Every structure is written in C-alpha cells, then in structure tokens.
C-alpha cells in the first residue's frame, strides 16, 4: 500500500511521531507491529512484540554532520546500554535498546532524550508492516449473523466486525481488530475469478456467496482510503413464506396469482424488497406449473424446482445486462420473469414490453411509497417519452407493494405495507395523468383492494406490536394517522 503523508506539527520526540503514525494506520489499515517513516534527513522504525503492547524497539537514522553529529554521539554515549550507535558516510544509526539491554521502558526514554537534540520536521511519510494475517472464518461470521439476527456485517480495517441488528450498528468482540491484509485475503478467497479481477481493476465488485448449511450473502467489496472494505447482506438458505415474513398472506397470494402484467416491490435500501420478491417467486414455484426466469445482479436467493421450474441468470456470468436478459427471455418460453432491479429506462421499457405480451413481470424499485412509483418510473425517461410511458403503465401495471421495516416492541422489526392495486377507474386514470394525489385517493376507495401505510401502521399499533411513538414516526401523514386512531377519518373524494 502507498505511504501515508501527514502534517504533525513540531513534535518534541520521535515517539510522538510514531504514535501519530500508529494511530493513523490503525484507523485505515489495522494494527501494525512495525511502523516505518521518514522526513528529510531522518528515518525511523518502531516494532512492538505483539498487537496489544506498546512499541519496545526503535531504530533512528539521522544524516548529520558537524555540531549536530557531535551532540547526537555524545547523547548516545551517555545513554549507555539503552542505545547502540553506528555511523557510516554521515548517516548515524541509533538502535534502542542496545544489544545488552532488554529494557523497553529505558529504550523509550532514550528515544525521547536523543530526540531533544533534533529539530523534527513537521511533515512525515510513513507506512506499516507486520499486520495481522490470520484468516477470517466465514463459518464463524455466518454463525454470528444468525446468533445476533443481523441483516448485515461490515469488515473494515482498524475495527472489529460490525453487525447491523434491527437497523442499529453494533461492534462485536468475536475476533480482534481486523487488518487490511486479512480483509484483502478474504475477498480474494471468496470472490469468483471474474469479480476478483474486476475488484483489482476498478476497486469495487459485488457477488453472491454461499456458506453451506448456514445461508447465502450478497457480498460487496470496495476500496476506501486505500484499504479494502467488505460488506455482507445475509440471506437465508430457506426462502421464508408470507406468514414467516408477517405480511398479509391473502393479499400476497392474490398478487402472486396474477397471470400477466407488471408487479413491483418498492421500498428503500434495507427494507426487505429482495426477500419479499423471493417469497412471491417461491409461492408461484409451489403453486403453478410454469417456467420462471430470473435475471439478477447477482443471484441471491437460490430456488429449487418445485411445481414450476426455474432458470436463474446472473448478470456478468450468464447475461450481460437486464435488458438483454429480458429481450432474450421472451424467446425462452417464460411465464414469469423476475428482474432484480429496475435501474434505468431501457430495463423499465423491456419490463413493460414483456408485461404487455402475456408475462407476469416482477421487479424491485427504490421508492418511499406506492403512490409515487408511477412518477418515479416516468422520471427515468426523457420528457418526450413520458406520456407514452404513463399509457403503457396504465395497461401493464397490476400492483405495487411498498414496504418499511418498523421497530417492534421487545426487539426485532416488522414490515408495514402500502399496496397499490390498479383495479379501479380512478387509479387507472390517475396513472395515465401522472396524478399522485388521485392515485393515493383512489387507493382509499372501498372498491379498491389497495392499502395505505397509515392503515397498515394503525393495525400494527392496535395489535400492540409497535409503540405510538414508532407509529407516528413512520406514518407518512401523521394528521391522517391521528384521525384514523380517533375514528374520525373520512375517505376523500377524487379531486
């Protein structure tokens, strides 16, 4: 790794320079047993016996002549066994402690004494060595994720493993402070060859990893501040059912039973979109004799053939892009197509086309609410195309499931759902007009099967699953929630 350059000001002792270097390296690369540095005529080395103790041996090289050289030699002579001195071609080398001493404290004091005769530079270049190299056990990490019920784990140099539990970050003491060397070796060990080469070339990559008997993980590796960082998002080996996810099974089965059209699962990062999509596909897999084609980046939940048979394709390994996968998929006799994420106009265009030709297309999208999904999709397109896109959505969009994960009383999290069914004229007309207000009003009409977040959150509060504070924090319109709570809310009429 490259040297680090830091301005340290005028330090009194080279030990202060070493301490600042050590502190900086710990934050970015892990705990070094050896630190080296240089600035102008001065070089230093410092070593510690293990990763927990202070530095105990030092080497200082100073290019000096004249009065300064005389001062340094006199000081070294007075220090006795705490310092060994040698000089060659104007370079004075001081080793602490000397060969006849093992007193680390005396060596540290000797470094301070010698430093007092030198005007130390302000800016230093330094590097570390002899970092921890013991391997990181993936089995241990997966078992820890299961034990803590963590959704994510972060491995970063200078820190112990960091777990996300119920959306809160926790540092775990399951192993010691990690080094950049350890993390880099782990990435190289678990990444497929193509992804490792991508990581070396562009400094980031993502891939799927399977720990047999414990689960899968979506892995993301990248470089930050010159050091590697590795993140895992945990995915269970067994795909959870609607009941296990605590989402309304009857409503989800109605959506999963659709024969064609576009079905979207929306929400923000970490809201469980991937798991809900997998549960939908698994229900179809168990209940329909059909062909399910998935195009994912990368393949995350792995499905086994049940009543249906499934073809799972991963971006990069099996197909170059979502668009190519969908367009080619239309010639591969699918009944259901899962697109991992709708992230650009071309993918959305291909999804709507497939949904309009007799296929059920399931995909995910980042959005705060179901009613805003239409305008979110339209925003990917140039203004000249947007009216046509809205008309296509009016015909192809069957439903939107938007979800949030709320803190549960007693620990854990529960999903709150907002569900849009394109099932009445008010909603259909509002979609083609891009009228988010009337989409939301239409979702509240008795004839629609749709449901707003406020109603879902109110039911969770009534069932004593969440606190009132949590309910109001996550309800999009607190005034509306309060009226529902008091029984005074009335369904608005279309504008």
Structure characterization notes:
The structure is a single chain. This protein is an alpha+beta fold and 495 residues long. The protein has 3 domains: 4-129, no CATH class; 138-235, Beta-Lactamase; 242-486, P-loop containing nucleotide triphosphate hydrolases (Rossmann fold). Helix content is 36%, strand content 26%. The protein contains 18 helices and 20 strands. The strands form 3 sheets. It has a 7-stranded antiparallel beta sheet with strand order 1-7-2-3-4-6-5. The chain has a 7-stranded mixed beta sheet with strand order 16-15-17-18-14-19-20, with helices on both faces. Strand 19 (397-407) and strand 20 form a beta hairpin. Helix 10 packs parallel to helix 11 (345-355), helix 11 runs parallel beside helix 13 (386-396) and helix 13 (386-396) runs antiparallel to helix 14 (425-433). The chain is elongated and about 95 Å long.
């Amino acid at each position: 790794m490259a040297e680090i350059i830091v301005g340290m000001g005028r330090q009194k002792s080279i030990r202060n320079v070493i301490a600042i270097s050590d502190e900086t390296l710990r934050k970015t690369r892990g705990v070094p047993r050896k630190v080296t540095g240089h600035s102008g005529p001065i070089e230093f080395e410092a070593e510690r016996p293990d990763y927990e103790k202070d530095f105990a041996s030092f080497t200082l090289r100073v290019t000096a002549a004249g009065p300064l050289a005389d001062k340094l030699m006199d000081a070294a002579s007075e220090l006795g066994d705490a310092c060994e001195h040698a000089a060659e071609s104007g370079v004075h080398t001081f080793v602490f402690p000397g060969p006849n001493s093992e007193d680390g404290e005396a060596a540290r004091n000797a470094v301070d004494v010698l430093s007092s005769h030198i005007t130390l530079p302000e800016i230093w270049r330094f590097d570390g060595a002899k970092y921890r190299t013991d391997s990181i056990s993936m089995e241990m990490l997966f078992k820890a994720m299961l034990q803590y019920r963590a959704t994510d784990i972060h491995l970063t140099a200078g820190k112990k493993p960091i777990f996300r539990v119920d959306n809160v970050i926790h540092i775990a003491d399951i192993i010691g402070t990690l080094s950049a060397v350890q993390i880099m070796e782990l990435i190289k060990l678990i990444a497929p060859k193509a992804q490792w080469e991508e990581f070396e070339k562009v400094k980031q990559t993502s891939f799927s990893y399977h720990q047999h008997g414990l689960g899968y993980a979506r892995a993301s590796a990248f470089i930050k501040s010159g050091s590697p960082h590795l993140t895992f998002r945990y995915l269970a080996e067994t795909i959870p059912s609607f009941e296990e996810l605590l989402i309304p099974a009857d409503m989800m089965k109605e959506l999963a039973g659709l024969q064609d059209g576009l079905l979207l699962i929306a929400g923000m990062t970490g809201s469980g979109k991937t798991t809900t999509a997998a549960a939908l596909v698994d229900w179809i897999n168990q209940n329909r004799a059909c062909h399910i084609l998935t195009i994912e980046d990368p393949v995350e939940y792995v499905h086994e053939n049940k009543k249906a048979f499934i073809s799972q394709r991963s971006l990069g390994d099996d197909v170059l892009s979502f668009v190519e996968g969908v367009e080619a998929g239309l010639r591969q006799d699918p009944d259901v197509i899962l697109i991992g994420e709708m992230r650009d106009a071309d993918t959305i265009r291909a999804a709507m086309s497939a949904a309009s030709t007799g296929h059920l297309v399931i995909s995910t999208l980042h959005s705060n609410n179901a009613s805003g999904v239409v305008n979110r999709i339209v925003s990917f397109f140039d203004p000249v195309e947007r009216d046509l896109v809205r008309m296509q959505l009016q015909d192809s969009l069957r439903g939107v499931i938007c979800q949030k994960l709320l803190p549960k009383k007693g620990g854990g999290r529960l999903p709150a759902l907002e569900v849009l069914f394109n099932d009445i004229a008010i909603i259909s007309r509002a979609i083609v007009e891009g009228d988010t207000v009337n989409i939301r009003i239409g979702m509240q009409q008795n004839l629609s099967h749709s449901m707003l977040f406020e109603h879902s959150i109110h039911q969770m509060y009534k069932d004593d699953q969440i606190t009132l504070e949590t309910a109001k924090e996550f309800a999009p319109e607190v005034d509306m929630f309060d009226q529902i709570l008091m029984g005074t809310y009335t369904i608005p009429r279309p504008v």
